[in-house]
Specification:
Blueprint (H helix, E strand, L loop, with lengths): L2 H17 L1 H14 L8 E7 L18 H9 L1 E3 L2 E2 L5 H10 L27 H7 L3 E7 L26 E5 L10 E3 L2 E2 L9 E3 L29 E2 L2 E2 L3 E3 L11 H15 L5 E6 L21 H22 L6 E7 L35 H4 L3 E4 L7 E3 L3 E2 L3 H8 L16 H4 L9 E5 L3 E5 L2 E4 L7 E2 L4 E2 L7 E4 L15 H16 L5
Parallel strand pairs: 1-12, 1-13, 2-15, 3-16, 4-5, 4-12
Antiparallel strand pairs: 2-14, 5-6, 6-7, 8-11, 9-10, 13-14, 17-18, 18-19, 19-22, 20-21
Bound molecules: 2-acetamido-2-deoxy-6-O-sulfo-beta-D-galactopyranose and calcium ion.
Length: 519
C-alpha cells in the first residue's frame, strides 16, 4: 500500500479526531470491517540505549568514536537536537516512556533493585497497550528495570506480573541492569535455561552461605569496583545484590549484546507480516562494560568505547534485517537513550583514563544523574522513509510524548488521566512541525524546567559534586537560570540578573508539579 495514501488518510483522520470524535469512531469501524488493515500501520521500533550521551555518536559530533550505523539512521531520518529522556537515570525515564507520566509524580520510581515489584500497574494504559489494542504485536527485548512480581517474585516459577501484564505480547529481558542480580534472562515469565535441580536465590539484604563477594574476595575479580558493586561475583565481576544457584541460567557478559540482538531480530522476522512494535532496550554502554571479543580493544577508548561500537553494530544489524525483509520503507524507528553518559559508574574499567579527547556529553554540561542538560538531553533520531523527510529538527520533544503521539498515529484513544504528561507531538516527531513542546521538566537531582530557550533549576540543598562518579549534580544553594540559545553549556547563571524570569519559572515549575492533569 502506498504511503502517500496513508499519509493523507491519517491526516484526515487526525483532523476528524480533533473535530468530530464520533465520526472518527465510525471511520475506524469501517476500516476494521473492510479490512483496511494491518499494512496501514507502520512497524514501530524503539532502540533505547542505556547511558548513551549526547556527544557519544558521530552524527552528534563525536570524532574519536565511529558510529557509522547510527549515523546512517540519522542521515536517512530526522535528527533532533533538543530532545529528552524525562530523567537522568534509568527507571524513571523508562517509566515515563511507557506510561506517559513524569515518574516524579509517583513514589517508588527511582532506580530499582533487581528484586523490586512491578511499578506499573497491570491494566493501566501504556505505550505498548495502546498499540496492542489496535492490532500490533508488541515485544520488549533487553533491559526492563521496572520491577517484576508483586514483592516476592518467584524466580524459579512463573515471574509475573511483568511486561506481559502491561501490554507486551512477548518479553525477553534482564530484570534490572547488568550490574544487578539476578544475572539471568527472563523470557515470557520464566528464567531462561534454569535447571530445576539448581534453583536460583536472590537477596538484596544478606549474602548466601559460602558465596564469595567482591568485598571479601577481590582476588577472584577480573574487573574491580570503584564504588559499590562489591557483592555477588559472576564472570569475575562483582555486582549489586546477592545470588546463589541457578548456575546454568547465568549470562556471560560478553554475550549480552548478541543475545538481545538475536532476540530482537527474531521478533522482527516472526512478525514481519503484521504490524509490530519492538522496544529494543540495549544494555550498552551501561556498566559493567564487557565487549564481545569482536569489539574488544577496537575503539581505543577502552571498554566504554568498545561497547558503543558494539551498540552501533547492533543498530546496523537491525537496519539490515529490515532491508532484507523489505520492511524499511514502512518501519518507524526511534533511536534514543534513557539518560546521559557517565565515565566512572562504579567499575575500574579505564573509561576515564582512556577517554582522551572524547566528549560523551558533547557541548552540554553535566552527566548522567545531573540536572544540567547532559543528564537528560539525549541523542534522538526518527527514521520512517515512507513519511519522514530526512533532516535536523530543533523542536523540543520528550520521550514522555510517545504514548499520546503513537496513539494519534494509529487513531487510538487513551485514558489521559493516567498519562497526564504525554502530549500528542506526532507532527513534531515526524518533522511536519518545528514547534514541539512549550516546556518540559527535567528530573536530575532537583527538578528543572525548560521553557522555550530558558532553563531554570531551583535552589537545592544536596552536594554539587557526586563524589562517587566525580560529576556535577546540578545542585546549588542559589537558583540557576540559563539561556540555552546562546549558552548551551550552562555557564552563565542569569538568575540574579533576571529575578523576574527566575521567579516566573519557579512558579511555573511548581504549577506543573501540583497539576495532576496538566493543561
Ligand atoms: C547506581 C549504581 C550505578 C548504576 C545506577 C543505575 C552504585 C554505586 N551505582 O546506584 O552503577 O547501576 O545505579 O543506572 O551502585 S541506571 O542507568 O540503570 O539508572
Ligand atoms: Ca541508564
Amino acid at each position: 500500500m502506498k504511503p502517500e495514501y496513508l499519509t493523507t488518510r491519517f491526516r484526515r483522520e487526525r483532523i476528524a479526531f480533533a473535530t468530530k470524535a464520533k465520526l472518527l469512531g465510525v471511520f475506524i469501524v469501517i476500516l476494521a470491517v473492510t479490512g483496511v488493515h494491518a499494512g496501514a500501520k507502520p512497524n514501530i521500533i524503539i532502540i533505547y540505549a542505556d547511558d548513551l550521551g549526547y556527544g557519544d555518536v558521530g552524527c552528534y559530533g563525536a570524532t574519536a568514536l565511529k558510529t557509522p550505523n547510527i549515523d546512517r539512521l540519522a542521515k536517512q531520518g530526522l535528527r533532533f537536537t533538543d530532545a529528552y529522556a524525562t530523567s537522568a537515570t534509568c527507571t524513571p525515564s523508562r517509566y515515563s516512556l511507557l506510561t506517559g507520566e513524569y515518574a516524579w509524580r509517583q513514589k517508588g520510581t527511582g532506580i530499582l533493585p533487581g528484586d523490586a515489584a512491578l511499578i506499573i500497574q497491570p491494566g493501566r494504559t501504556t505505550l505498548p497497550s495502546v498499540l496492542q489494542q489496535t492490532g500490533y504485536r508488541t515485544g520488549i527485548v533487553g533491559k526492563w528495570h521496572l520491577g517484576l512480581g508483586n514483592g516476592d517474585v518467584s524466580w524459579n516459577g512463573e515471574i509475573k506480573p511483568g511486561p506481559r501484564e502491561i501490554g507486551f505480547d512477548y518479553e525477553f529481558i534482564m530484570a534490572a541492569t547488568g550490574d544487578r542480580v539476578p544475572c539471568a534472562f527472563v523470557e515470557n515469565g520464566r528464567l531462561v535455561g534454569l535447571d530445576p535441580k539448581d534453583p536460583i536465590r536472590v537477596s538484596y539484604e544478606t549474602n548466601f552461605p559460602g558465596e564469595p563477594t567482591g568485598k571479601a574476595n577481590p582476588e577472584l575479580l577480573t574487573m574491580h569496583p570503584s564504588h559499590g558493586h562489591d557483592q555477588s561475583i559472576l564472570n569475575g565481576i562483582s555486582r549489586i545484590g546477592y545470588m546463589t544457584g541457578g548456575k546454568a541460567a547465568l549470562w556471560k557478559d560478553e554475550n549480552l549484546g548478541d543475545v538481545f540482538l538475536g532476540k530482537a531480530k527474531e521478533f522482527i522476522e516472526k512478525n514481519q507480516r503484521q504490524p509490530f512494535f519492538l522496544y529494543y532496550a540495549t544494555h550498552e554502554p551501561h556498566v559493567p562494560r564487557v565487549p564481545h571479543p569482536r569489539f574488544a580493544g577496537k575503539s581505543g577508548l577502552g571498554p566504554r568505547g568498545d561497547v558503543i561500537l558494539q551498540l552501533d553494530d547492533a543498530v546496523g544489524q537491525i537496519l539490515e534485517t529490515l532491508d532484507r525483509l523489505k520492511l524499511t520503507e514502512n518501519t518507524l524507528i526511534i533511536f534514543s537513550s534513557d539518560n546521559g553518559p557517565i565515565l566512572d559508574d562504579g567499575y575500574k574499567d579505564q573509561a576515564r583514563e582512556l577517554n582522551g579527547s572524547h566528549r560523551a556529553s558533547g557541548p552540554l554540561r553535566g552527566n548522567k544523574y545531573s540536572a544540567y542538560e547532559a543528564g537528560t538531553r539525549v541523542p534522538f533520531i526518527v527514521r520512517w522513509p515512507a513519511r519522514v523527510q530526512p533532516g535536523v529538527s530543533a523542536a523540543l520533544v520528550s520521550q514522555v510524548d510517545f504514548l499520546a503521539s503513537m496513539a494519534a498515529l494509529t487513531g487510538q484513544k487513551f485514558d489521559a488521566r493516567t498519562a497526564p504528561d504525554s502530549q500528542n507531538q506526532l507532527a513534531s516527531l515526524l518533522g511536519e512541525s518545528p514547534r514541539g513542546r512549550t516546556n518540559l521538566v527535567e528530573q536530575g537531582g532537583p527538578l528543572a524546567l525548560r521553557e522555550g530557550a530558558w532553563k531554570f533549576i531551583p535552589p537545592a540543598s544536596g552536594a554539587r559534586l557526586n563524589w562517587n562518579t566525580k560529576t556535577e549534580t546540578g545542585n546549588a544553594t542559589e537558583a540557576q537560570l540559563f539561556n540555552l540559545a546562546d549558552d548551551l553549556g550552562e555557564t552563565n547563571n542569569l538568575a540574579a540578573a533576571q529575578p523576574e524570569r527566575a521567579k516566573k519559572m519557579a512558579a511555573q515549575l511548581q504549577a506543573i508539579r501540583n497539576a495532576s492533569t496538566p493543561e
